[in-house]
């Protein structure tokens, strides 16, 4: 999804650090607040499903 915006600009618009934005982009974040997700969707003009992917836990033996 290309929006012609730097990570620094996006982070500033949604009120998080560039480090936290990087964690979200790379899938290394442990979670995301609904407020942050809402701000991302508002700025990027998208729906949460455009940004999130369900990945089931690995089965335990």
TrEMBL record:
It comes from Lentilactobacillus kisonensis DSM 19906 = JCM 15041. PROSITE patterns: HTH_CROC1. This is HTH cro/C1-type domain-containing protein. The lineage of its organism: Bacteria, Bacillati, Bacillota, Bacilli, Lactobacillales. It comes from the Bacteria. Pfam families: HTH_26 (PF13443). Residues 2-51 form the HTH cro/C1-type domain. SUPFAM superfamilies: lambda repressor-like DNA-binding domains (SSF47413). One of its GO terms (molecular function) is DNA binding.
């Amino acid at each position: 999804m290309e929006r012609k915006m730097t990570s620094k600009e996006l982070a500033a618009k949604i009120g998080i650090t560039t480090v936290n934005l990087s964690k979200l982009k790379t899938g290394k974040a442990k979670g995301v607040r609904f407020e942050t997700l809402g701000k991302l969707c508002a700025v990027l003009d998208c729906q949460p499903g455009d940004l999130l992917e369900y990945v089931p836990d690995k089965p335990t033996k």
